[in-house]
Amino acid sequence: MTETHENPNSPTASPSSRTSRRNVLFGTAAAGAALFAAGCTSNKSNDDKEEAGQANVADDKPGKQVTIGFAGPQADHGWLNAINEQAQERAKKYKDVTLEATEGSNDNAQQVGQIETLINKKVDVLVILPADGKALTQVGLKAMRAGIPVVNLDRVFASQQAYRCWIGGDNYGMGLNAGRYIGEKLKDKKNAKVVELAGIDNLELTRERTDGFDAALKNYPNIEKVARQAAEFTVESGQSKMAQLLRAEPKFDALWNHDDDQGVGAERAIKQAGRDDFLMVGGAGSRRVMDTIKADNGVIKATVLYPPTMAASAIDLARALGQGKGVGGLAEFEIPASLTLYSAVVTKENVDEYLPTGFK
């Protein structure tokens, strides 16, 4: 998922660039300049202008009919299944939206074929979560050239020309917040040791999560990361790689696991080893982990969110694009070019607030 140019979505951009520039990129400057010029010369009253602005904002009231094509990877993972559910449930909320969803695939060629079918159906807008952003960039470009705006969900395409709007999680921020939480818990402990159970190492998102984690730990000189294993976002890999970590490190104080699904296996390995002498922080925000945090009867003390609600928001953005409207609460008449979601840390103190967002 490496990118070919420097932009705020690029994994090669600096972490500060990714996390700051992504959050506040908005629609075309030319359109904004035109609106400003029109405002300076218009004879309309302020009330007329406010009404015009409100009419250009998407809301729940039925409007122009929009057909949204939705294409994501195969839902063979709890988080990905939640992505599909969020998109489908959000679409049902709107009487003016028809959702055309593919079966999903982890095979790049097959997913390209599914998206091309949606292009041939002439859907109004496409929402695409690519199995591999770089590999599917060309089909994103094809859709945009065909006049179908693309909402790129989470795994970013290699060219900004392949999408109109990107929305997704903050992988660097996810690692950063996990590291800060662990750092604060261990800041008074001498010679503290932590280990990391990462995700799939050939995905840029995994490297970004590790980079954020390592950056946070640099603020705590008493803490050393002594081991790291990369799993595969599956229960089986989580169990086997966690077992390796436990054998290699007979004593450590904290574990950060990138993914709550592979965490099911990690917890099995921990239980089998009879270990409870460290705290564990999960990743993504499954309902199972949130329930465990609330019960406070195990090693899991927190999880860092990677909200699947981004799929529901992607449907909102796609609908607004299809209707030529902006987003409520913002002054701009265009939807943003990029939206990065925040990776909140869920603990026993705030878990009730986040329970409704937990995925199965």
Automatic annotation (TrEMBL):
Principal localisation: other
Matches recorded under InterPro entries: Peripla_BP_I (IPR028082), SBP_2_dom (IPR025997), TAT_signal (IPR006311)
Pfam families attached to this UniProt entry: Peripla_BP_4
Domain Periplasmic binding protein as annotated: residue spans: 68-325
Alphabetic keyword roster: Signal
GO molecular function, one term: carbohydrate binding
Record GO cellular component, one term: cell envelope
Residue span of region Disordered: 1-24, 40-65
Subcellular location: Cell envelope
Biased composition (Low complexity): 7-24
Family matches, as SUPFAM superfamilies: Periplasmic binding protein-like I (SSF53822)
UniProt family annotation: Belongs to the bacterial solute-binding protein 2 family.
Protein name from the UniProt record: Sugar ABC transporter substrate-binding protein
